[in-house]
Amino acid sequence: MAIQKIESHLAGEWCSGTSEGAALVNPATEEVVATSSTDGLDFAKGLAFAREEGGAALRKMTFAERGELLQRMSDALQAEREPLIDSAIVNGGCTRGDAKFDVDGAIGVLAYYARLGKELGDVRVLPDGEGMALARGARFWGQHVWLPRRGVAVLVNAFNFPSWGFAEKAACSILGGMPVVTKPATSTALTSYLCTKAIVEQAKLPAGVYSFVGGSPGDMLEHLGVQDILSFTGSASTGQKLRSMAAVIKNSVPVNVEADSLNAAVLGPDVDIGSDAWDLFIKDVSREMSQKTGQKCTAVRRIFVPADKVADVIDALGARLDDVQIGDPSLKEVRMGPLASAAQLRDVRAGLGKLMEDADVAYGDPAAPIEGPGITAGKGYFFPKLILKARDSHGAKYVHDLEVFGPVATVCAYSGEAEDAAALVARGQGGLVASIYTDDNRFAEDMMMGVAPFHGRLYFGSSKIVDQALGSGLVLPMCCHGGPGRAGGGEELGGMRGVNHFMQRTAIQGNRAMVQAITGTKE
Ligand code: NAP
Predict the structure, then answer these.
(1) Which domain range does residue 65 map to?
(2) What phi, psi does 145 have (nearest 5°)?
(3) In ligand 1, which atom is closest to the CA atom of 157?
(4) Which of 156, 163, 248 to mutate to test the pocket of ligand 1 (most atoms within 8 A of CB)?
(5) Most buried one in 71, 213, 228, 394, CB count within 10 A?
(6) 204 and 286 belong to one structural domain
(7) How far is the CA of 173 from the centre of ligand 1 (A)?
């Protein structure tokens, strides 16, 4: 495969950095597949062009018209689906299934928001709630409205979802009337670049609506202004850095952060071994540990099990994980590829060392050489599937405090009481999703009250939905994604909620007839 040169698309044109740039590799073979440089690019000009040209074009459009743009973006990705999947295999270490999860997620979320735009129709301003009389008389009237901001949304994404990651943010932003500049993580940027090529060449968006930085962001974020938005997905430490940037603080730039999460799966005390709810739990957890080699923000990291069922859970999970064949993800028989980069492998190994201060390996062998189809000894960033068992669930520190971004999860015993399980789950200090497996409404309610304040989403697996449930790891556009505390405090998606993050809410006060006429709320 020829080495591809990743370009950026700024101020309405393709551009390349001046240096040789970073080498992007195939993590299964360590072969270079692409290079990326953004040195010397004029980011200030790129942002200004997006604000002035792209923003003006979007503000003239209705929601329905912006929805049409999103549909064209979705169609463009659909047309290039196979090459996009191939690129995620060679540059992301993804199996075909992992790659589809990302690419189809992007196509689907753009199509979902395209439909929402159509439903919102031929309007450019949206009422927020009912209008109200503000004084004793009926004429002094108030109405809250949502309308487009005048800035650009800069979307900084993590390495693990090079397609879906930008698409879910861009869909909400463009529908809300804000142009975007997307910046993928450099290590897996090939897929994002090919998405951009498809969008630029096929979707024919108005100039400046969609821009792309194919690598390091240089000084771009120093040029964020008072109407701009920064939406970030990545590690908590980078999120903190970006939040404290001078331009962000000075200009009160809203920053949405989607960061780390020690997602928990809880087995209810009512779930019998071998029951439907048990099988769902084992199936979901083993998938959420190994899909995308554990490099999903929603992957299960902590598994809470009543003490008397710990050994059975480890056996059952291990038996399912035995079927997950590790190897070169371009091969059909392989179900789990390598980690995405050398840096990832380093971080996961270091993280495992910390976890093992609290826990013992109960399944898998971190020291054994990794063998599998297409693996060349000494090459690639492969890492084994591992289940750890906490020595003392309450005394453990790193298990509740350190996200190891690989196919590793720790089983923690709890008493079987909801109060105990909830207190342990909350030790994660804020997460994206917690999954609870039970058929007992009382246990479910106690868990909801105990852990919902620490999460953006709860998933209840039960025997009634075994044939319908989609798993806790799937982020759906109609439900909110994000979480408090360690997870960054951000929120994305959730239908219209996700669009509102990119719009300004303003209270309009004045004569009732005028307010209703200009806001389009006349009865
Ligand atoms: P990362 O190292 O924090 O990088 C994330 C993004 O930030 C990359 O695009 C990176 O660009 C950029 N970046 C890093 N330093 C920057 C700086 N000083 N200024 C501007 N941009 C900067 O995270 P990652 O390793 O890619 O992703 C893994 C993490 O993401 C995990 O912790 C995972 O939990 C989290 N994640 C969360 C969610 C969620 O929805 N909550 C989803 C996916 C992943 P370069 O690559 O060019 O350095």
Answers:
(1) 4-259+491-519
(2) -135, 155
(3) 9
(4) 156
(5) 213
(6) no
(7) 20
CATH number of the domain within which 77 lies: 3.40.605.10
Over the range 235-255, which residues count as b (16 or more CB within 10 Å of their CB) and which as e? bbebbeebbebebbeeeebbb
Do 94 and 55 lie in one domain? The reply is yes
Q: For residue 368, report the distance from its CA to the centre of ligand 1, in Å.
A: 30
129/269 same-domain check: no
- Quote the pTM value: 0.95
User: What are the DSSP calls for 448-465, one per residue?
Assistant: HHHHGGGEEEEEEE-GGG
Q: Please say whether the beta carbons of 508 and 515 come within 8 A.
A: yes
Q: How many domains does the chain have?
A: 2
Is 284 found in the same domain as 427? yes
Q: What digits encode the pLDDT tens for the residues 128-163?
A: 999 999 999 889 999 999 999 999 999 999 999 999
pLDDT above 90: residue 494: yes
The alpha carbon of 185 and the centre of ligand 1 are apart by a number of angstroms equal to 6
Locate the DSSP E strands across 338-423: 359-363, 386-390, 408-414
Convert 297-336 into a string of H (helix), E (strand) and C (coil). Answer: CCCCCEEEEEHHHHHHHHHHHHHHHHCCCECCCCCCCCCE
Chain centre to alpha carbon of residue 186: 16
Q: Is there an atom of ligand 1 within 6 Å of 492 CB?
A: no
Q: Please determine, for residue 20, whether its predicted confidence score (pLDDT) is greater than 90.
A: no
Identify whether the C-beta of residue 110 lies closer than 8 Å to the C-beta of residue 484: no
Do 23 and 168 reside in the same domain of the chain?
yes
Between CA 325 and CA 330, with CA 328 as vertex, the angle to 5 degrees is 105
CA dist 298 → 259, 405, 422 (Å): 10, 10, 18
Residues 235, 487: Cα–Cα separation, whole Å: 9
In the numeric block, which tokens belong to residue 69?
Answer: 């743009």
pLDDT given at position 523: 76
Domain holding 431: CATH number?
3.40.309.10
The protein residue with its alpha carbon nearest to ligand 1, atom 8, reads 185
CB of residue 405 inside a 6 A radius of ligand 1: yes
What's the rounded Cα separation, in Å, for the pair 26 and 285?
Answer: 28
